[in-house]
Specification:
Elements lengths: L17 H15 L3 E2 L16 E3 L15 E5 L2 E5 L6 E4 L4 E5 L4 E3 L2 H4 L7 E3 L9 E3 L30 E8 L2 E9 L4 E5 L7 E6 L6 E3 L10 E3 L25 E8 L2 E9 L4 E5 L7 E6 L6 E2 L5 E5 L4 E3 L5 E2 L4 E6 L3 E2 L4 E3 L4 E13 L6 E8 L2 E10 L8 E10 L4 E9 L3 E3 L5 E7 L1
Length: about 450
């Protein structure tokens, strides 16, 4: 009766020629133990097999192998012996360098279960995995390549998934197991890079807003309004070759492209192309009301100060000047009057703010009867002579003598300037349309 697993013959009681049975059993053991076959693709016996050569018989066998598909064929003592595999038997296929297993109906890849490892609780490679790090690897490098075997799509992605926005999904970079950098979705769904000098204090280097793609640098948190936010005390932009340029582009002339300067996030100055293509500088006391400091005209390069007071006034009637009395010339019209600093009703100019001003006048004399023996013209400030020069003549010539004076003088805010004349001995007129009073702020 053969053995139940390998089917080897057993000795019977009082059996003669026991060596025959023993030798047959030894040949069977030699054929099956440490089973290594030469081939598994032959359906017909090879022509000159070596003693002990073993094969897995392929499907639809012929010749001496007929009827032995999937059996183990061993050439022993000049004849083929066949062994029926049992479930779990292993065979090494020499010409393929493959390990096969008999599953009860077919020879299959014995390592298939290993190549499709599923649901392992822990995996450590050259190190020990633990409950926190269920996959642990010690290596100088880890390669994750695209699938060119199946083949795959050619892509290669590593996916990190978290359960909720408030959780972390990221990479941790350590030095001697002390964290120095964190990269990923850390506590929310914005992408963040953080660094640390000691593994306990962390500084946000870069944040990218998930909704807009806007970027924050140097600890600034990206938001929906600003495409780039940078925190710092100093910034250096160095040349790559020779030049360094910053370009600010807008869609249309009516849009803004500018730099905004703020105090505690409230704007105090705007510099750029503001609502047109002229270069403009505006300031604000509160972030809502703005004053234009200056404008550079895009077509001419001219420097303009819209808020700097300047005026040119004239009188449209002959001003009667009584003899021997200081009389204000009644300039009642203006050719120009920026900031409305000239008052035609009061015939004077009021400095809107302190600074240096250029002021001047040109007065044409007109006779009434006998001309004055002397004429004096000057500027008054706040009801008193300014004291920065006079225009003076002896007896004037009717419709010829003209009195001109120009001064550069400092004024305080709300100082009032007017023009006054004094005719000695006889009266006369300051002629209309030929007499002018003008002035402007000097920055």
């Amino acid at each position: 009766m053969p053995t139940p697993n390998l089917g080897l013959p057993q000795l019977a009681a009082d059996q003669a020629q026991k060596h025959v049975t023993v030798n047959e059993a030894l040949l069977g053991l030699d054929a099956l133990v440490q089973l290594a076959v030469l081939d598994r693709d032959l359906a017909a016996p090879p022509g000159s097999p070596a003693q002990g050569a073993r094969y897995l018989v392929a499907a639809s066998p012929t010749g001496a192998w007929a009827g032995h598909a999937d059996h183990i064929a061993a050439w022993l003592d000049g004849a083929w012996r066949f062994f029926i595999p049992g479930a779990g038997w292993l065979a090494w296929v020499t010409d393929e360098a493959a390990l096969l297993a008999w599953n009860g109906s077919a020879w299959v890849d014995a390592l298939a279960a290993v190549s499709a490892i599923q649901n392992l609780p822990l995996l450590g490679i050259l190190t020990t995995a633990d409950a926190t790090n269920r996959l642990a690897v010690k290596s100088d490098g880890v390669l994750l390549s695209h699938d060119d075997v199946t083949p795959g799509s050619g892509d290669m992605r590593v996916t990190l998934n978290k359960s909720a926005a408030a959780k972390d999904a990221g990479f941790t970079f350590q030095d001697a197991f002390s964290t120095r950098a964190l990269v990923g979705l850390l506590g929310d769904n914005d992408f963040v890079i953080k660094v640390s000098p000691d593994g306990s204090v962390f500084y946000t280097a870069i944040s990218i807003d998930k909704d807009t793609g806007h970027v924050g640098l140097g600890g600034a948190t990206a938001d929906a309004n600003n495409a780039l936010i940078v925190k710092g005390t100093a910034f250096l932009f160095d040349r790559e070759t020779d030049d360094v340029r910053f370009t600010f582009n807008k869609a249309a002339a009516g849009d803004d492209v500018a730099l905004t300067f703020q105090t505690n996030y409230s704007a105090r100055a705007l510099v750029g192309l503001l609502g047109d293509d002229h270069f403009t500088f505006k300031v604000s006391p509160d972030g809502s009301t703005y004053f234009t400091g200056f404008v550079l005209d895009k077509d001419s390069g001219q420097f303009k100060m819209p808020l700097a007071p300047k005026f040119s006034a004239y009188t449209n009637f002959d001003n009667y000047i009584a003899a021997n009395a200081w009389t204000k010339v009644q300039f009642n019209n203006a050719d120009s009057n920026d900031q409305s600093a000239f008052n035609g009703s009061n015939n004077n100019f009021t400095a809107p703010f302190a600074g240096n001003y250029v002021l001047g006048f040109s007065l044409r004399f007109k006779a009434n009867a006998t001309v004055p023996t002397k004429v004096i013209a000057t500027l008054y400030k706040n009801g008193a002579e300014l004291g920065r020069g006079r225009a003076v003549s002896g007896a004037p010539v009717d419709d010829v003598t003209t009195y001109n004076l120009t001064v550069l003088t400092p004024l305080a805010a709300n100082d009032v300037i007017d023009v006054r004349v004094n005719f000695a001995t006889n009266d006369g007129y300051i002629e209309s349309d030929q007499s002018h009073f003008w002035g402007h702020y000097v920055p």
